[in-house]
């Protein structure tokens, strides 16, 4: 009886720890795939005359970049719409700015439902009618930004063309973008 009690106590400690590590690993997998995708996107940007505008029209920019990135990284699927935690972290949503100077990539982590973003603005972006950059609270200054939209019960919609912006009153924060590395909310 004592042995069974000890085993039950050990299991009660080990199972939550294991589940916590698994969720953390799923977040890291989504972040890793986004970093790899950023390298593929920047490579495509350089070989395309320093522009993310690969298609003939603004509506085809995102699809064309997604196709180019899929050729460079076949282990990851690239889409122009919403991704869900059942598809992620191996499916990345892609969006390109109307001027071709910026790209957004998003992945939703399986298990946690957190939506992770990478925003690469090669120049300051105009917010007027420019896809993701029209969203107030979304980074539009030049540079590379990393973001997290925390799952607070219902998983956020994870779409590069319609990202979640930082709300004006955000206590505690559920969405955060920063320039140095992925945030930890």
Description:
- The chain is an alpha+beta fold.
- It has one domain (2-178).
- The chain has 2 helices and 8 strands, in the order ααββββββββ.
- The chain has helices spanning 2-47, 58-72, and strands at residues 77-79, 82-83, 91-96, 102-108, 115-121, 143-149, 158-159, 175-178.
- It has a 6-stranded mixed β-sheet. Strands 2-7 form a two-stranded antiparallel sheet.
- The model has no long low-confidence stretch (mean pLDDT 84).
Q: Portion of residues in helices?
A: 25-40%
Average pLDDT rating: 84
Please indicate the count of domains. 1
Count of strand segments: 8
- What is the general shape? elongated
Q: Which structural class is indicated by helix and strand composition?
A: alpha+beta
Topology order in helix (H) and strand (E) letters: HHEEEEEEEE
In whole angstroms, how far apart are the ends?
A: 43 Å
Most strands sheet:
6 strands, mixed
- Count of DSSP H/I helices: 2
Strand arrangement, largest sheet? 1-3-4-5-6-8
* Radius of gyration, whole Å: 19 Å
Hey, roughly how much beta strand do the residues contain?
Answer: 15-25%
Provide a quick synopsis of the model.
The protein has 185 residues and is of the alpha+beta class. It is built from two helices and eight strands, in the order ααββββββββ. α1 crosses α2.
Keywords:
six-stranded mixed β-sheet, single chain, alpha+beta, 185 residues
Q: What order do the helices and strands come in, and which of them pair?
A:
Elements: H1 2-47, H2 58-72, E1 77-79, E2 82-83, E3 91-96, E4 102-108, E5 115-121, E6 143-149, E7 158-159, E8 175-178
Parallel strand pairs: 1-3
Antiparallel strand pairs: 2-7, 3-4, 4-5, 5-6, 6-8
Helix pairs in contact: 1-2
């Amino acid at each position: 009886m004592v042995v069974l009690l000890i085993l039950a106590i050990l299991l009660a400690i080990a199972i939550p720890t294991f589940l916590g590590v698994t969720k953390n690993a799923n977040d890291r997998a989504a972040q890793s795939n986004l970093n790899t995708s950023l390298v593929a996107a920047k490579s495509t940007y350089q070989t395309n005359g320093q522009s993310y505008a690969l298609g003939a029209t603004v509506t085809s920019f995102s699809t064309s970049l997604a196709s180019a990135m899929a050729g460079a990284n076949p282990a990851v699927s690239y889409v122009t719409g919403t991704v869900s935690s059942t598809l992620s972290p191996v499916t990345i949503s892609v969006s390109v700015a109307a001027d071709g100077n910026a790209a957004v990539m998003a992945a939703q982590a399986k298990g946690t439902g957190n939506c992770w973003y990478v925003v690469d603005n090669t120049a300051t972006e105009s917010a007027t009618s420019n896809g993701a950059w029209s969203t107030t609270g979304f980074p539009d200054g030049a540079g590379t930004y990393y973001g997290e939209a925390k799952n607070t019960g219902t998983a956020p919609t994870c779409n590069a063309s319609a990202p979640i912006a930082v709300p004006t009153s955000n206590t505690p924060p559920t969405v955060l973008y920063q320039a140095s590395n992925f945030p930890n909310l």
